[in-house]
Amino acid sequence: MSSLVSIMIPVYNAESTIAMAIKSLQYQTYSNWECIIVNDGSTDKTLDILNKLAIKEPRLKIFSFNNNKGRGTARQFALEKCQGNLIAMLDADDWYYHDKLEKQVNFLNQHPEVVLVSCGMVIQRNKECVGVRGIQNEKIDHFNQPMPVPVPHASSMFRREIVNGHTYDLEFKLGQDMDFLRRILIGHQYAKLDYAGYVYDEYISNTPSKIFSSYRFSAKGYLKFFKTYPIVSIRYAILEYLKIIRLKIYTRLFGFNSIIEKRSIAITEIQKNEFLKNLEMLKNHE
């Protein structure tokens, strides 16, 4: 029997994108999934759209907060509602390629020693593919100490068993996703697929102030390991603050968009065609 995959979607005021995100689940080649959607106090038509979609799609499990509580709280609430052996993430303004879930489930089935597998992220801008990030050669690595998390949170899938009581930090306004991964990954093996299957519009979701704040929260996250890894935790906390200084200088000299472009590699013609194929499949899916 195939494993149930629980996909977590925290959503706030995403009336223009949430339907596409959910549609990208419905066209998956892997069908044994449930989607835990937490409406985090949206003030637009997001909840109305979700309720209409849920009438025809029983795999959608919708929960709603009366007021906005923040992404950390929404993620944690969703995590507690997950029933699957495998857990994946999808943000409300992103979408999956049609075989994203299948490829990750197959890899985890073939490699029982691996607890988390990620895939590459396609960076889009105005519905056009402009770069890719996070593609690797499927080498299995060991995460043996607190360090920069080598995989994206959004495009990862992990085994439920490694949560082991860990929670998203509700005090972290930003960066709670990577802080969570850092803590659940310690002592485990992970891998990155040679495949880009998650589409993300970084130009919409990122601003300099958000990145600066995420670095500050990241530094705070490293200090959680001070008792067990004192030297390592202090070293990486300091490096996070140095990133803020470098980023401020680089932003003034070259502009913010150049920073985003630098974080990704150029798209190949094959990857561009794959993006267009999946976009067309998504648009045509009923």
Number of domains: 2
The class by helix and strand makeup works out as alpha/beta
The outline comes out as: globular
CATH architecture of the largest domain: Alpha-Beta Complex
CATH classification class of the largest domain: Alpha Beta
CATH H-level superfamily of the largest domain: Spore Coat Polysaccharide Biosynthesis Protein SpsA, Chain A
Oligomer: single chain
Write down the CATH topology of the largest domain: Spore Coat Polysaccharide Biosynthesis Protein SpsA, Chain A
Using only CA atoms, what is the Rg?
18 Å
- Poorly predicted regions: none
Helix content: 40-55%
Measured by DSSP, the beta-strand proportion falls in: 15-25%
Total number of helices: 10
Strand/helix succession: EHEHEHEEHEEEEHEHHHHH
Q: For the report, how would you describe the main beta sheet? A: 10 strands, mixed
Instruction: Count the E strands.
Output: 10
Keywords: Glycosyltransferase, Transferase
Pfam family, one: Glycos_transf_2
InterPro entries: Glyco_trans_2-like, Glycosyltransf_2, Nucleotide-diphossugar_trans
Protein name: Glycosyltransferase family 2 protein
List key phrases describing it.
single chain, 286 residues, alpha/beta, Spore Coat Polysaccharide Biosynthesis Protein SpsA, Chain A, ten-stranded mixed sheet, 42% helix
Fold and architecture overview:
By secondary structure, the chain is α/β, with parallel strands linked by helices. The chain has 2 domains: 5-205 and 261-284, Spore Coat Polysaccharide Biosynthesis Protein SpsA, Chain A, CATH 3.90.550; 208-254. Helix content is 42%, strand content 23%. The chain has 10 helices and 10 strands. The protein has helices at 18-26, 46-56, 71-81, 100-110, 176-185, 202-205, 208-222, 230-254, 256-263, 269-284; strands at 5-11, 33-40, 60-65, 86-89, 95-96, 114-125, 128-133, 140-143, 157-159, 188-200. Strands 1, 2, 3, 4, 5, 6, 7, 8, 9 and 10 form a 10-stranded mixed beta sheet that branches. The longest helix has 25 residues, at 230-254. The radius of gyration is 18 Å and the shape is globular. The model has no long low-confidence stretch (mean pLDDT 91).
